[in-house]
Amino acid sequence: MEGTPEDGQAKRPKQTGQLSYARVAQEGFRAPIVCEDYPENQMSRENFVDNQRAIGRLVDELPEEGFTPRLADSYWAKGAAIMVCQDELTKDLLAARILTLEAWEGSRLRMVGLDALPTYKSMVAWFLGPVDTGGSMSTRRGQMVYALC
What we know:
Blueprint lengths: L20 H5 L3 E7 L9 H16 L10 E7 L2 E6 L2 H10 L11 E3 L25 H12 L1
Antiparallel strand pairs: 1-3, 1-4, 2-3
């Protein structure tokens, strides 16, 4: 096929750091896991992967019979690992075990509420001033951005 890489894999969309609506709107109990001194010390992407592996080991160590934890999804956002649990029992199990879980050397993790994560606010501001009759629209936009910085 024309336009397809030689190994047969399709190109992946560029990651911009924005979460998709499908991921954010997915049903489940969200369990943000952060470093002990969050937000000063945020979890890196590499540590997020280590965290996923540690939780996998935790599940593997549970007895075959009885309760089976179910995670619907996990993603990295705002310097935290967001675990999407399918039920409240899974979230409670994770909360009980996270303090003793060693995802990487020296990791001290804790579970927090979603309200502990920073929120980002956007705004638009209009600055009154003399009418600039010269210059292009992009120049004026550049001046406004400079004024906001």
